[in-house]
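Retro notes (design track)

What went well: tokenization of the new backbones is finally stable.
What didn't: we kept losing track of which sequence belonged to which structure.
Fix going forward: every design gets posted as structure first, then sequence, in one message. First example under the new rule, 127 residues:
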């Protein structure tokens, strides 16, 4: 089992920045990749960004490219999502997730293929 705990959400004005953290514990050696997903009210859950746990390769949703950066600190078993130039449409519950199976690029976007999930953290961007 892998346990994931997110932190760092909150309320920010449009154009501002936030950094989310996701601390992993347990059998982290079994993790292939970790991703950040978000779900806004009335919308489907969507992938925001994903990072390969060992090699560090990344993939981003088009809607956040150039504004968000995903990174990891293997020593701390933590993944970060640095969000800049935030827009009201970025408002959602953000959840981190971990998967054991290989994926690449857009193939990492299917949330049902992730094995472990955090509890989620609310990000609200005011206009």
């Amino acid at each position: 089992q892998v346990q994931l705990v997110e932190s760092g959400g909150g309320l920010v004005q449009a154009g501002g920045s936030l950094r989310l953290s996701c601390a992993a514990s347990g059998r982290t050696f079994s993790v292939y990749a970790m991703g950040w997903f978000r779900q806004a009210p009335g919308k489907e859950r969507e992938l925001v960004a994903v990072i390969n746990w060992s090699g560090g390769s990344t993939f981003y949703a088009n809607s956040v490219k150039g504004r968000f950066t995903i990174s990891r600190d293997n020593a701390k078993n933590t993944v970060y999502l640095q969000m800049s130039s935030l827009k009201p449409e970025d408002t959602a519950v953000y959840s981190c997730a971990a998967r054991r199976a290989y994926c690449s690029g857009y193939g990492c976007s299917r949330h049902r293929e992730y094995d472990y999930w955090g509890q989620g953290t609310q990000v609200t961007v005011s206009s």
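Added context from the reviewer: The longest strand covers residues 18-26.
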